[in-house]
């Protein structure tokens, strides 16, 4: 009887391992098929080649629901592809056009930020919440042309990176920045979230701003023990310079 139970246990374990391996193999096939479909969608839309960095799975349906992608040779232009299923058909939308818009608006923002705070580094990310666009925008279009089409679904993240040495002068720095933000944010009808992040001095010179696009930049830098302090605020229609300064001071936080 004992031997029979051992045989049953071993057989059960063996079957479980086979089942798990089969499921893993099946999921691997699904991921490869989805990766191929995402690349076909993007290459047909933009006539460029892309690399899928990763796929995220919706565990409720057991299939991928988003992919992180970048054009070949341009890792800093990463974006997300949303994957839907409608009536049994897989559909896609993407944020690649928002990369174009970010690049179009960067020189304008960079000029007044650096004028206010010489030595600052900056990256701008035109974002669109949880939605992606199905439109194919002209890569050379101006930001205003892009915003006119996407204004129902658009925001701007400005990440300003400063050497930690600037902390000793942060009161004057926040005063200058509050005036600069109030005077220069060109579209107050578009919500603009600004993060000011102080970086360790031994890292600052080699920091690549494009690697830290978006509202999660501080969390990434803090996790990597690169950021030592930060503050943030949202600039929107009706805000005053005094309110901007107050937010910069109140939300300041050291790591």
Could you please describe the fold and organization of this structure?
43% of the residues lie in helices and 26% in strands. The N and C termini lie far apart (64 Å). The protein has seven helices and nine strands. Strand 1 and strand 2 form a beta hairpin. It has two domains: 2-94, no CATH class; 98-254, Diaminopimelate Epimerase, Chain A, domain 1, CATH 3.10.310. It has helices at 2-46, 96-116, 143-150, 170-184, 201-204, 217-223, 241-250, and strands spanning 50-58, 63-71, 79-86, 89-94, 121-127, 155-163, 192-199, 227-235, 253-254. It has 255 residues and is α+β, with helices and mostly antiparallel strands. 25% of the residues are buried.
Topology readout:
Layout: H1 2-46, E1 50-58, E2 63-71, E3 79-86, E4 89-94, H2 96-116, E5 121-127, H3 143-150, E6 155-163, H4 170-184, E7 192-199, H5 201-204, H6 217-223, E8 227-235, H7 241-250, E9 253-254
Parallel strand pairs: 6-7
Antiparallel strand pairs: 1-2, 2-3, 3-4, 5-6, 7-8, 8-9
Helix pairs in contact: 2-4, 4-7
CATH class of the largest domain: Alpha Beta
Amount of beta strand: 25-35%
As a percent range, the share of helical residues equals 40-55%
Number of domains: 2
Q: What's the CATH architecture of the largest domain?
A: Roll
Mean pLDDT: 82
Listing every helix as H and every strand as E from the N terminus to the C terminus, the arrangement reads HEEEEHEHEHEHHEHE
Q: Give the strand tally.
A: 9
């Amino acid at each position: 009887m004992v031997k029979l139970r051992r045989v049953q246990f071993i057989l059960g374990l063996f079957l479980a391992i086979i089942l798990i391996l089969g499921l893993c193999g099946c999921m691997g096939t699904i991921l490869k098929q989805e990766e191929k479909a995402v690349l076909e969608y993007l290459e047909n839309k933009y006539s460029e080649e892309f690399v899928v960095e990763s796929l995220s799975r919706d565990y409720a349906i057991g299939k991928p629901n988003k992919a992180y992608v970048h054009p070949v040779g341009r890792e800093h232009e990463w974006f997300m592809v949303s994957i839907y299923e409608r009536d049994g058909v897989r559909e896609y939308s993407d944020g690649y056009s928002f990369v174009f818009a970010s690049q179009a608006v960067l020189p304008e923002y960079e000029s007044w930020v650096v004028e206010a705070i010489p030595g600052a580094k900056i990256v701008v990310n035109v974002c669109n919440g949880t939605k992606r666009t199905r439109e194919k925008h002209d890569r050379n279009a101006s930001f205003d042309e892009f915003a006119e089409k996407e204004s129902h679904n658009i925001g701007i993240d400005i990440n300003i990176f400063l050497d930690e040495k600037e902390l000793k002068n942060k009161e004057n720095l926040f005063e200058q920045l509050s005036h600069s933000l109030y005077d220069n944010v060109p579209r107050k009808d578009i919500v603009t979230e600004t993060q000011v992040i102080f970086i360790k001095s031994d890292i600052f010179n080699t920091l690549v701003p494009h690697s830290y696009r978006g509202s999660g930049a501080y969390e990434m830098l803090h996790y990597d023990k690169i950021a030592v302090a930060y503050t943030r605020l949202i600039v929107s229609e009706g805000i005053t310079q005094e309110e901007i300064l107050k937010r910069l001071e109140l939300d300041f936080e050291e790591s």
